[in-house]
Structure formats: structure tokens, C-alpha cells
Amino acid sequence: MGQVYAVTSGKGGVGKSTVAAGLGFAFGKLGKKTLLIDMDEGLRCLDLMLGADKSAVFDLSDILMGKEISDAVYKIDGADGLFLIPAPRSVGMIDAYLFSAFAKQAAESWDVLIFDFPAGMDFSLYSCLPDGALFLTVAAPDPVSVRDSAAVGGRLLELSCAARLIINNFRYSFSKRRIFRGIDDIIDSSGLQLLGIVPYSSELMLLPVTHSLKPKSKPMSAFLRIAKRLEGERVLLPNLKKL
Ligand SMILES: Nc1ncnc2c1ncn2[C@@H]1O[C@H](COP(=O)(O)OP(=O)(O)OP(=O)(O)O)[C@@H](O)[C@H]1O
Ligand SMILES: [Mg+2]
Fold first, then answer.
1. Does the pLDDT value for residue 100 go beyond 90?
2. Residue 233 banded pLDDT, cuts 50, 70, 90
3. Segments of the chain assigned E as strands
4. Residue 168 CB–ligand 1 contact under 6 Å
5. Residue among 144, 202, 205 to mutate when testing ligand 1 (max atoms within 8 A of CB)
6. C-alpha of residue 141 to centroid of ligand 1, in Å
7. Using an 8 Å Cβ cutoff, are 228 and 30 in contact?
8. Residues 205-230 pLDDT 10s
9. Pairing mode, strands 134-139 and 163-170
10. What CATH number should be reported for the domain holding residue 65?
11. Which of 112, 190, 218, 219 is the most exposed place for a label (fewest CB within 10 A)?
12. Residue 238 domain-assigned?
């Protein structure tokens, strides 16, 4: 049975899809057969972000309507062991019962599943994930995102979901000058244990154009640290000044 991760956030645009893709690259690099599932029905993101939009014919809704999982799985070019199931093109296509059966079946054949959920407080599909799923709540250091991460973190804890915090878009200079909230404040607000910090980076901003990350870049190192921590390795937080 593979590891199942669900990337969530309260506020939109905080970098969930970027983090999901980055973790996908990282797990692939660690030799894990990794499947990203784009849950943002109607909008979609990861196919374009990862350069699979031209080859993607089928999507999650086709699987739920009876196609084999493998029919809607697309290999990501240039990324070791990384595959994608695109999101449905229209809304209302994800039936909870069928989705639950799909998620269980997929977890049997993959080392790592990463579900990229839409932002917000609709938690209806969360209980359909296989037992042991870990929710990765992404928060940026701006005040709106921090307040929203508190709402999501609190709700996940109420639902007894195992959840961790990933801080994205971190800029040491902003934190030092107290323009944005510091790491400790964000952790306290969300009520979640910190898993890792991803720096603000032009390389990540350009991911939808380049579809790749440089192996030794700061963002890739951040994603590798998070992936290794999730694999149970003891990985220290980096020096925030150098992140
Ligand atoms: N660490 C980062 N550094 C620089 N730009 C980033 C970073 N993370 C995300 N971005 C950029 O921010 C924008 C939003 O990112 P992304 O689409 O991953 O957010 P999201 O939370 O998935 O959004 P949505 O709620 O719409 O699904 C994108 O343009 C992305 O390239
Ligand atoms: Mg997204």
C-alpha cells in the first residue's frame, strides 16, 4: 500500500499545485513511483504546469466512469517515475463512492499518491481517501493565508485527519523586517506541525513554462527535504537566511 498525501489550503493561490508538483519531482528522484492526481475539476492545473496538456486525452472522470486507471495516467517527460491523472474538465464529475474505490485501487499500485485538492472549506471528499492519508496544508506567510490556514488546520484536527503544515513563498527578508508573519506565528496559527518551508523563487514561478526544476536548485532541495522527512528520515530545517 502506497503513501497517500492530500495537498490542501484555505486560501487559493498559495502554491498547492506547485508544492504537489515539486513533491512529485522529489519523490520520483528518491526512486518512488509517484502519481499526482489533479482534483481541481473544472479549472485544472497540473497538466499544463507539467507539460502534459497536449498528450492528456482522458482524465479522472473517465476513470470514475469505467476506464482503466492506466488509460488516464500520463508520464511526465523528464521527471523520474512521475505520472499524472488530469482533473475532470467540468465540475460535479467526482462521485464520492466511485472516487473512494479509485483511490484505494490506485494506492495499491503506486508508492506515492499526491492529491492536489482545490482551495477552500469543502472537505467532502477528504474522508474518501484511503486510511493513513496525510493532509499537507500549504500556507503562505501573508496575513490572509495565515488566517485561512488556521481555519483549515482547525477543521482537519476536528475531523481527526492527520495533517502537517508546509510554508510556501517564504522570503527571509520579509520575515526579518516583519512585513509578513514569521515561521513561529504561522505554525501557532495553523495549529499544525511544520513539515517544511519552500522559498519564494522565480524558478517556481516559471514552472508552468519550464515544466521542470533544476536538480540542485533551492526549491528542489526544499522539496527533497520534505519528501525525505515524509519518508521518515531525520532532516533538519535549513538556515532560513540561505533558504
Ligand atoms: N514558492 C513560490 N515562488 C514563486 N512563485 C510561486 C511559488 N509557489 C507558487 N508560485 C506561483 O504562484 C501562483 C499560484 O501557484 P499555484 O497554482 O501552485 O497555487 P494553488 O494554491 O494551487 O492555486 P489554486 O488555489 O488556484 O489551486 C503560480 O503562478 C505559481 O507559479
Ligand atoms: Mg492549484
1. yes
2. very high
3. 3-8, 34-38, 74-75, 82-85, 112-116, 134-139, 163-170, 193-199
4. yes
5. 205
6. 13
7. yes
8. 999 999 999 999 999 999 999 999 99
9. parallel
10. 3.40.50.300
11. 218
12. no
Rounded Cα distance, 42 and 92, in Å: 8
Residue 180: pLDDT above 90? Answer: no
pLDDT in tens, 155-179: 999 999 999 999 999 999 888 888 8
Tell me the CA–centroid distance for residue 175 and ligand 1, in Å: 19
Quote the cell numbers at residue 58.
482522458
- Predicted TM-score (pTM) of the model is 0.97
The model's pLDDT over 139-149, given as tens digits with 9 standing for 90+, comes to 999 999 999 99
How high is the mean pLDDT of the chain? 95
Residue 239 lies in a domain: no
Which numbered atom of ligand 1 lies nearest the CA of 20? 18
Q: Which atom of ligand 1 is least distant from the CA of 13? A: 23
**Structural domain boundaries, residue 70:** 3-233
The CA distances from residue 127 to 23, 137, 159, 188, in Å, are 22, 16, 9, 25
Point out the ligand nearest to the CA of residue 211: 1
In a domain, 240, yes or no: no
How many distinct structural domains can be found in the chain?
1
Which region holds residue 228: left if phi is over 0, alpha if psi is between -120 and 50, else beta? alpha
What's the rounded Cα separation, in Å, for the pair 22 and 44? 17
